[in-house]
Each structure stands twice: as structure tokens, then as C-alpha cells.
Write a structure and sequence with these properties.
186 residues; Ferritin; 5 helices; iron; Ferritin-like_SF
């Protein structure tokens, strides 16, 4: 399908405008997760690094799913830039707390998308967003649990790494996930 819809605010529904903004949020989240992964990698914490490298790829895929949806619906996406990325940390807890906060913020953004779709009676948009709402339940739960494990570890990152390697496997469960624009990497 050719993308014919204008990308100015005047030519798009509220839902499509918010979805375009969300593409930028997802790419920002991907970059932020990559920065967290590199921080852990630099400190010889490969399990935590792997978790966050994987999260980076997952957020990138979320952005490309949104781009694919826009393209399939005739919206020519003007890909937004990436927001500010935090890279200065002193202890592992700060990184996991940031990840949890980021997932909670994304959850609110996705809820806003769902609300806009419903308000505009965009039933296909609402259905599209439902997968992301379910995904956010998992993301917030995972980061909440990881933060609890880091707190219980009391600074013993060896124990945290052991838990991560045991409990956070490498499998990707993207059953029912929307199609990406370009190949999916996770």
C-alpha cells in the first residue's frame, strides 16, 4: 500500500499522531536499554547485559511494528528523533529502577494510544494496541521483579547474575505480535 496520508498534525487522527510519537518513544527506549546493557557489560555483568541488550532489540521491534501498522494504513511515517539517554550511573540499582520507570511511562503512553483509538472509534487501531498493552504488563512485571532481586542482593551482584541466568531465559515469546517494518530481530 502506498503511504498517502499527510504527516502534518492537520492530516492525521489523534491516534495516528500519538502512534508516530510512540515510534520515537520506542526508539528512545531501545537506545536507553542499549546504554544500560553497555554499562553492565563494562562491569563484567554479562547476564544483566544480555537482559538489557535483548530489551533494546525488543523496543526496536516495537517501533518497527508501529511503523508497519502506519504504512499499512496509508500513513507516511516521519520517524522522530531519539530523546535524551541517561548514561551516568553509580550503582546497578539505578539502572534497573530507570528501566522500571521507563516501562511504567511507556505503559501510560500505550494506554493513551488505546484511549485515543477508542475515542475516535478506530477499532483496528484499538485492536493493534491491545497486543502492546499485554506486552507492557509483562515488561513492568519483569522489571519490578528484577529491581526486587537487586534490592535483595544487597550489593552482591554475583547472586543477582545467578538469578538472572537462571530465571530470565533467552527465549522470545512474541506470539501474536504485529508484523515489523523490515525483519524482526528478537
Amino acid at each position: 500500500m502506498n503511504a498517502t496520508t499527510r504527516t502534518s498534525d492537520h492530516g492525521l487522527s489523534k491516534f495516528h499522531r500519538l502512534l508516530l510519537e510512540q515510534v520515537g518513544h520506542e526508539f528512545t527506549a531501545s537506545h536507553q536499554y542499549f546504554a544500560l546493557a553497555a554499562w553492565f557489560d563494562d562491569r563484567d555483568l554479562p547476564g544483566l547485559a544480555r537482559v538489557f541488550y535483548r530489551q533494546s532489540l525488543e523496543e526496536r521491534d516495537h517501533a518497527t511494528m508501529m511503523v508497519r501498522y502506519l504504512l499499512d494504513n496509508g500513513v507516511s511515517p516521519d520517524i522522530p528523533g531519539v530523546g535524551r539517554i541517561q548514561t551516568d550511573f553509580t550503582e546497578p540499582r539505578e539502572l534497573v529502577a530507570l528501566a522500571l520507570s521507563q516501562e511504567q511511562q511507556v505503559t501510560e503512553q500505550i494506554r493513551g494510544l488505546a484511549g485515543a483509538a477508542r475515542e475516535e472509534q478506530d477499532y483496528t487501531g484499538e485492536q493493534f494496541v491491545n497486543w502492546f498493552l499485554q506486552e507492557q504488563v509483562e515488561e513492568v512485571s519483569t522489571m519490578s521483579t528484577l529491581l526486587n532481586i537487586v534490592d535483595r542482593g544487597n550489593g552482591n551482584m554475583f547472586d543477582v547474575e545467578t538469578w538472572v541466568n537462571r530465571e530470565l531465559s533467552d527465549h522470545s515469546d512474541a506470539a501474536g505480535a504485529p508484523e515489523t517494518a523490515g525483519p524482526a530481530v528478537s
